[in-house]
Structure prediction request, 503 residues.
Amino acid sequence: MVDFLIGLFLASLIVSLFTTRLYRLLLWYSMNSLTLGILALSIGKSLDDRAMFITGVMTILLKAVGIPFVLKNLSVKFNFVRQITPEIKVQYSIMLIPAILVFTFYLSEPIVHMIHTNANYVAISISSLFLSLLLMMEHKNVAPKIIGFLSMENSLFLLGITATNGMPMLVELGIFFDLLMAIVVINLLFHKEELKV
Amino acid sequence: MIIYIFGIVLLILIAPLLLSFIKATKMVLLYKRPISIFQGYRNFNKLLNKENIISRESSAITKYAPFLVLSPLIIVMFFLPPLVHGSYYVSFVDAFTITGLVSLSTFFLMLLGLDSASAFGGMGSSREAFISALVEPAMVLTIFSVSLMAGNLGVGQAGVNLAEHFPQEHMASFLFSGISFFILLMAENGRIPVDNPETHLELTMVHEAMILDLTGLYLALIEMASSIKFVIFASLFASLFIPFGYGFGVLTAFLFFIIKLFIIAFVVALLEVHTAKLRLFKIPNLLGIAIVFAFLSLITFYVLGA
Prediction:
């Protein structure tokens, strides 16, 4: 089951690399966070960890519902460009993405030997980190860059819950509030941009 | 042996039903009054009663090609994984044979399009060649990675192995190859993101452009071939990627398999309503995603073993 969810996580990230519309990208980000939340819940169930349940529910509420909703409202408010064509052509992405995946899978091999439980999830989370870097790189507009930043945070969260069997809950809640602060700062930045014009 | 033959005949018989079911579901979702789901059989009957008219410009290929379009697909039907437990099946046929037979059928369809000597036929043939050339590598990669997970290169044996020992530990790579195969199912059968099977608009036609000149028995054969192609892909998907319900009793297993086929058809209809048709030169992007997922499934299986 965890394998299936982690596959969905990577698949939604890869599909979001090919999307050319903003709302569809938000939908894929929301799917990505939803699988992450369910993954946290199922790992928490298998470890019988009460704190992991809270983080899972928080992930689903905040990242899968809250942040896409806020970003959609922001995009309506500030008239974001909704046609976001990637700067890297699709032909090159098709070659680049498997190259990144192979590279990171072999890159994480020494780490995989050190960790005994859920070893290959580390490899998948590192590769999704690189893929979300690619998502940030391939767009010129601000909104997809924000999504890239957020999905990078998602993959770090995945690394956290799979490699260490759950960080202390305080740290995870701290990361959530950091994320919310980032959204607020982004909102303020847009306001300032609007004032300038 | 009787179950084997019965399964093939059953699949051929419900082939027009599935396509009419997709059409009816789409019409319901678009708030139209739906056609009867037996419309496929009515069309077949109507076409059989019409006389054959062949263009003066066309050569003998037009007479032979419809049969040669249909027959490789009928042969593929014999190589599919078994539908129920205890049925006879062909275990040694691998992905290359099935892809090759499907593309042999496509080859004769393209010849048929070129032979009619109309502008539309040539255009449709070139587009079909363009799409099917891109489909093949992804298809071979996908079926190979599934076969590796099942531990046998033969497609029939792979289906049986998957149904008996479902690879829980390879769930991630299984999912990736499933996504890839579903995109190929849409592309190869000319469903909406790639080709719209209902329109006769010259800009968007692919499949219809090649068979524009045909009537009567020949058109009936081609229509039957396209519905059988959908059944082949759907039943490959059902037995390789949804390998449950194989061990039930014979009748229950048949019923369960048909329900799986109808679920696949329903998902296809849902996607067709939900997405717009892609521009022709955007199709390589869609098939590129399929190739990425197929490759991803292979390397996830090899490197991570997940």
Observations:
- The mean pLDDT of chain A is 84.
- Residues 7 and 124 of chain A are 9 Å apart (CA to CA).
